Amino acid sequence: MVAAAIDRGSYRNICLVALPIIFQNIIDAAVSSADIIMLNSVGQEAISSVSLANSLLSIFFMFLYGIGTGIAMLAAQYYGKGDLATIEKIEGIGLKFSMAVGLLGAAAFVTIPRYLMKIYTSDSALIELGKDYLIFVAPGIIFWSVSAVYMSILRCIGKVSTGTVLETMALVCNVILNAVFIYGLFGAPRLGVIGVAVATSISRFLQLIGCIVVSATKPGVALTLRTMFEKHELLQKDFVSMALPAIGNDLSWSVAFSMYSVILGHLSSDAVAANSIVMVVRNMGCVMCYGFAAAAGIIVGQILGEGDREKGIKTGHRMLRLAFITGILGGVVVAAIMPFALARASLTLVAHDYLKFMLMISTYYITGISVNTCLIAGVFRAGGDSKFGFKCDTIDMWCYAVPLGFISAFVLKLPVKVVYFLLCTDEFVKWPWVLGHFYSHKWAKNITRDET
After folding, report:
1. Which pTM does this prediction carry?
2. Dihedral sign from CA coordinates of 422, 52, 197, 43
3. Rounded Cα distance, 104 and 88, in Å
4. Would you call 222 exposed, middle or buried from its count of C-beta atoms within 10 A (0-12, 13-18, 19+)?
5. pLDDT tens digits for 300-353?
């Protein structure tokens, strides 16, 4: 009876952390869906160009995500230890890296957008539309580079709901502004693709303002640029040794995953258009998976920071069970959305056929994503083990999936459907390696220092 009560308490704690993050992911996925639905009235080229441009944008967002999870590795454990002063120092270190990424990304989008789009497609119409999108979305990267760090800190210090409110506010603003600038409401110009980019940049700016307000009015860890210029040699050493592999992991994976768009982009515009809708639907199916993965990193990290290794391992096993369940449920969500997506998509007959096939693949592909994300980006990083994920994803993506995609598409010249199926084997190929490492329990470590 006591053990059952403990288990119920543990699952309740997991849900309290995971549910606000899941809600945030639902809003995020809904906004992406709104982008595609609204651009559906502009045309297939608009949908395809924004999808390809977002493949590039996702590389920078994944870089920021890597920094955020790197921060969480340290911050969650120090929160478990009750050391807020050290968490503020960790925030300053994270801001150094994130702002460097934001400024670099914005500069590239503004100065060489056409060359960046040529990586993904040779279609001149898509290149021109995507170029405009990148230029106007560039400021949003800078704003997000600051707020992403603070949002990660909020999650680690038990203010998950506050972060969710901030993210929801920004994303709701994004939807409203999308409608204003795409359709020219309230006297605004009809900007089409550019309107989506402008809406994104403004909403990220508003989110940053919200972070500043919360920092000034709520107790906890403050959002301040002062800590960026302070020297904390031991913490910076820890951040570099643990967070940089996480950043490298997410960057390596996101660049490799963007190669899927490169492959499809050079096969046909119909494949690009279908995949752009699939990504939106798949994201809706993955919201629970990403929520529980984020919760795993925070909760397991806090427990390990308290010094209770056995409890941390048991919680990790609970998170793995939840990852399987949420993966299956995510597939059910995709299957439920599929009829609506097929009925509403304004695509050619060929693209429509591709869409149906890709959505069917996604119904089971999400389970692979769920398990790997929970373990690699959640449980392993909670114990400071980021190097395993870096090695695993780099080998899987760059030695297996990407070469397989290029060979099947451009050497063997296989049909689009076959190429897509082969690309979607990437998550399952690494399961034996990932699960083997999980059951070894080598990842379960306390990484805090007594003196920082």
Report:
1. 0.75
2. negative
3. 25
4. middle
5. 888 888 888 999 999 999 999 999 999 999 999 999 999 988 888 778 889 889
